[in-house]
Amino acid sequence: MADLHFLANPARFRRFSQRVLPSLGFATVLMLAFGLYMAFFVAPADYQQGQTVRIMFLHVPSAWLSMGGYALLAGLGASLLVWRHPLAALMARAAAPVGASFAAVCLLTGSLWGRPMWGTYWVWDARLTSMLLLFFLYLGHIALSRAYDEPERGDRSAAILALVGVINLPIIKFSVDWWNTLHQPASVTRLDAPAIHNSILIPLLWMAVSLLFLFIFLVLVRTETEIDRRRLENAAVQEEEAAA
Amino acid sequence: MSGFTALLVRDLRLVWRRPGDVGVVLAFFVVAVVLFPLGIGPETNTLQRIAAGVLWCAALFAALLSLERLFAADYEDGTLDLLLLAPWPLELAALAKCTSHWIVTGLPLSLLAPVLGVAFGLDGGSLLALFATLLIGTPTLSLIGGLAAALTLGARKSGALLALLALPLCVPTLIFGAGAVETLAAGEGLWTHLAILGALALVALATTPWAIAAALRQAGE
């Protein structure tokens, strides 16, 4: 973390990200293309689930990234509250919708996968429900950070919320698991392979890394946009003050 | 500790002088609960099954409804600035505000819920379980809701935002609160659920006052 402190200055971060972004974007496209090729053409179809198992290559990494994204929000929130890093606020603002999108992708692909496998778009499965609640936590963070006339207040409120949310996530997860065993008469059979075969594991991990690249790319681009937006707003305020 | 009691007594006295504010919340609770049999139908079996969930959800909504004003009045008339300057910890002030909220909403809701439960055909044991879970669970709602209220202080559309922030965080309490009555009906013991509700309340008690105080500090800046 200490080595990253030099990036706390938005102007320095901008120089850094402008140098990194083109090659990162290029790498992301290449990796995603190869990952999707592996997922669709190289990985074998499941003997039980058929072709639908390929949804997993998008579904599972999205779930991982949406959870990691919330941890990132909490980390950024802590560094905003503790060190008052101006960049942490902008990056949290940039990262929250990206994380929420990954959660939404996870929910949508899960629902599309559930239709052929479980016969319904939605079951109150513990994992689905906790992912839905994570999505709601993201929505709360996004709404709160944009609910104030002074953006700094929204940033700090959202930072506190992210920290509280990250403490609560394991509790929510645990209680939803418990609730599910109370209510669910074990109608959902999941794919209970004792170990995933390499022919599936390798494309899955490859897709996870490429989507991680995509995540980082999107967050960096959106952080740049947030820096520009904040500058424009400040400039507009100064202009108004000068005119008055 | 004197600051804590002073603030608590002051808040309770304010409510005492305008009892209508509490009355509206309790009336909302009753009306919301009564709507469910009207919407779902009067079959006793169905009503018995959904009773705990309905009463718990309605209590959650009623508690949230009254939370919007928890810090807002103090924020608008400058009391909050005085609390920030006061020589005793802001965390205690936050705890006092949540305690007073619980006394004027959580406690009456816990007492009222079993009465409504009778109308849903719950038996004596279930009514007692309902009362016990609400009594242990509503402090958590007051604390988490207090945090949401502090975070949304001065925000646009703070009421809807407050609900969006607080509801996902209240899910564990809801699950174990409403679940307790159901496990009792299934012939299992109640203690696990009550113990977990107590644990949730203690976690909330140990964490939220600090978060509320942090939120209030940045609202006062």
Account of the protein in words:
The complex is a heterodimer of chains A (244) and B (221). Helix content of chain A is 79%, strand content 0%. Chain A is mainly alpha-helical and 244 residues long. Chain A has a domain at 59-184 and 202-235. In chain A, helix 1 packs antiparallel against helix 6 (198-243) and helix 3 (86-118) packs parallel to helix 5. Chain A is globular and about 70 Å long. In chain A, 39% of the residues are buried. By secondary structure, chain B is mainly alpha-helical. Chain B contains nine helices and no strands. Helices cover 86% and strands 0% of the residues of chain B. The longest helix of chain B is centred in the middle third of the chain and has 30 residues, at 90-119. Chain B has one domain (2-220). The model of chain B has no long low-confidence stretch (mean pLDDT 90). Chains A and B meet through helix 4 and helix 5 of A and helix 8 and helix 9 of B.
Summarize this entry quickly.
The complex is a heterodimer of chains A (244) and B (221). Chain A is mostly helical and 244 residues long. Chain A is built from six helices and no strands.
What is the topology?
The complex is a heterodimer of chains A (244) and B (221).
Chain A: H1 10-42, H2 56-83, H3 86-118, H4 126-145, H5 151-183, H6 198-243
Helix pairs in contact in A: 1-6, 2-3, 2-4, 2-5, 2-6, 3-4, 3-5, 3-6, 4-5
Chain B: H1 2-17, H2 20-40, H3 44-67, H4 72-77, H5 79-85, H6 90-119, H7 124-151, H8 158-185, H9 191-220
Helix pairs in contact in B: 1-6, 2-3, 2-6, 3-6, 3-7, 3-8, 6-7, 6-9, 7-8, 7-9, 8-9
Largest interface, per-chain counts?
A-B, 30 and 30 residues
Portion in beta strands of chain A: under 5%
Assembly classification: heterodimer
How much β-strand is present in the residues of chain B? under 5%
Largest sheet of chain A: none
Coarse morphology of chain B: elongated
Distance between the termini of chain B: 25 Å
Shape of chain A: globular
Percentage of residues in helical conformation of chain A? over 70%
> In angstroms, what separates the terminal alpha carbons of chain A?
44 Å
Structural class of chain B: mainly alpha
Radius of gyration of chain B: 18 Å
SSE pattern of chain B: HHHHHHHHH
Q: Mean pLDDT of chain A, nearest integer?
A: 84
Chain-averaged pLDDT of chain B: 90
Number of domains of chain B: 1
Low-confidence stretches of chain A: 185-189
Q: Helix and strand succession of chain A? A: HHHHHH
Question: Radius of gyration of chain A from the CA trace?
Answer: 21 Å
